[in-house]
């Protein structure tokens, strides 16, 4: 049984959230729109989700956390996405999960970034696994379909029945402000609008044009180089890459963690090219603001699950 804390949320309406996001987005991009629209079929290009939509029993989870990586990787921390779905009290007959986390190193033989994208129908035995792994193989970035339903160390997930329904549609192009990450901008905008009231969003966006910066964790350092002694050492260990659009990005973000009691990861976005290119990783933001263009669809969670919260052994401000 996974250690789980359930937190009911009382989110604003999608229309209220759209209003809160509109001005900050308009200030940061030459062109930006935030609307509430019927969700398109997100299984189709360019999104390639495992579920049609983002509606029905909307939930978010934060599983594990950065203390499982820093200062020393805790390699016993690994879980099945289906066990997490059960801990999230998801409907076993149908549903889906998307988000960002660490991949099943114990299955693929190396550390990796996971782009979780799964759905199930008529029970957890009938799963569509559209998840991808971004990893460093022979010194070069590589993206491939995940052979497993496992994850490790830390993961942030948005779950729903996968139904069509109203969603936030966000478009932005031509950055003119200073915030390079659209998801961090959204998180800050909601924090500014709602203060300690927790607003948690999950969804998918596409980098349609321009280049963005991503990192990919390399394999774990040898024990002789552990533990990581500082956040800088950890961040220097990561590999950083600029990749050209298009890129499909799955994202979970929170406006607040009141009193930091849940020790939430406030924003987490992992991406993969859903074409023949071998690129993907953890999204940081655009490289050339004037060239960037986004289109995304998000929904708001009504319940949060803090699962397997790790013991903190060192307080650090990490950027992974």
From TrEMBL:
Ranges of residues in domain DUF1907: 20-307
Keyword terms of this UniProt record: Hydrolase, Metal-binding, Nucleus, Zinc
Cleaved signal peptide residues: none
InterPro entries in the cross-refs: C11orf54_DUF1907
CDD domains named in the record: DUF1907
Main location: nucleus
GO terms assigned for molecular function: hydrolase activity, acting on ester bonds; zinc ion binding
Protein name according to UniProt: Mgc81809 protein
GO cellular component terms listed in the entry, alphabetical order: nucleus
Domain of life: Eukaryota
């Amino acid at each position: 049984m996974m250690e789980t804390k359930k937190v009911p949320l009382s989110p604003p309406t999608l229309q209220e959230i759209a209003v809160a996001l509109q001005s900050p987005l308009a200030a940061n991009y030459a062109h930006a729109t935030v609307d509430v629209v019927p969700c398109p079929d997100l299984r189709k290009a360019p999104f390639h989700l495992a579920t049609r939509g983002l509606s029905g029993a909307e939930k978010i989870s934060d599983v594990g956390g950065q203390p499982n990586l820093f200062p020393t990787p805790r390699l016993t921390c690994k879980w099945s996405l289906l066990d997490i779905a059960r801990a999230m009290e998801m409907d076993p007959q149908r549903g889906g999960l998307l988000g960002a986390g660490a991949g099943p190193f114990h299955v693929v033989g190396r550390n990796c970034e996971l782009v979780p994208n799964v759905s199930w129908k008529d029970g957890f035995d009938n799963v569509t696994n559209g998840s991808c792994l971004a990893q460093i193989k022979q010194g070069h970035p590589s993206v491939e379909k995940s052979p497993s339903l496992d994850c490790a160390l830390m993961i942030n997930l948005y779950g729903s029945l996968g139904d069509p329904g109203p969603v936030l549609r966000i478009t932005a192009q031509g950055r003119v402000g200073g915030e390079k990450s659209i998801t961090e901008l959204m998180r800050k905008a909601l924090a500014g609008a709602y203060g300690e009231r927790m607003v948690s969003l999950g969804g998918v966006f596409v980098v349609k044009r321009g280049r963005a910066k991503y990192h990919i964790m390399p394999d774990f350092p040898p024990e002789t180089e552990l533990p990581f002694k500082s956040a800088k050492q950890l961040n220097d260990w990561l590999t950083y890459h600029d990749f050209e659009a298009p890129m499909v990005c799955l994202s979970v973000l929170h406006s607040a963690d009141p009193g930091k009691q849940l020790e939430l990861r406030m924003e987490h976005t992992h991406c993969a090219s859903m074409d023949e290119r071998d690129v993907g990783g953890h999204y940081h933001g655009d490289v050339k603001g004037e060239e960037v263009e986004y289109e995304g669809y998000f929904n708001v969670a009504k319940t949060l699950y803090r699962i397997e919260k790790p013991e903190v052994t060192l307080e650090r401000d990490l950027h992974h």
